[in-house]
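Progress note, project year one: complex with cobalt (II) ion.
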Amino acid sequence: MAIIIKTQDQIALIRESCRRLAIVHKELEQFIRPGISTKDIDIQGDKLIRQLGGIPNFLHYNGYPASICVSVNDEVVHGIPSKHRILQEGDIVSLDAGMIYQGYHSDAARTHAVGQISKEARQLIDVTRESFFAGIKMAKAGNHLFDISNAIAAYVKPYGYGIVRDLVGHGVGTKLHEDPQVPNFAQLRRGPKLRAGMTLAIEPMINMGRADVEWLDDDWTVVSEDGSLSAHYENTVLITDGEPEILTMY
Ligand code: MF3
Ligand code: CO
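Model obtained:
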């Protein structure tokens, strides 16, 4: 496992890629409403990424057919946008987006409410986001990678939600997925030591019910096995000697 420490020049480009991606997410959030299709979101996201000078990095990645992953309700991640999938009031929808800007990747995800949603769904979205922030409290040089994982897991535990284990966060740089893998569930080991200049996508995926997931026949869409709602929150983060820099926050 080789974790790449980025130079200042590389960090400047990743930062710029991430800054632009944050704008894409902010715009897409405004766009969410009942009656639009998941394909509408993909079209809009693809357009925004390109307008901002980026290239959609998910499009054609291992054959993935869209620029934005749009995952509704029990879909955990990697939902394939479709003009037939219409968002309804009360749905929750996870948008995962990324771009390449001047050779550098960015990656971030948000789960949004479609109109009014249940208290339970709102709590799932909030706890998922909060677990990310609990995790990055540990994200500083000198700590160990799995301090982040353990902090996320400890934050979620009292809620009894299922932390997805089959998918994890990752390093980000000139590739979308670099070492290390960043699990969101409790670890027995400490993992590699964090160093300033590491850029990591930290991305808890949390099910309201059990943690188990399965893949649909499209070979992409990951759903909760028990059909429970699932939320996702991801940012690309820069490790520094002090507080981490959350590069994809608006
Ligand atoms: N954001 C996803 C991740 O962190 C990547 C989407 S996979 C793709 O792994 F194929 F849709 F690009
Ligand atoms: Co990611």
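The first helix runs from residue 8 to 31.
Residues 85 and 141 are 43 Å apart (CA to CA).
No further modelling is planned for this target in the current period.
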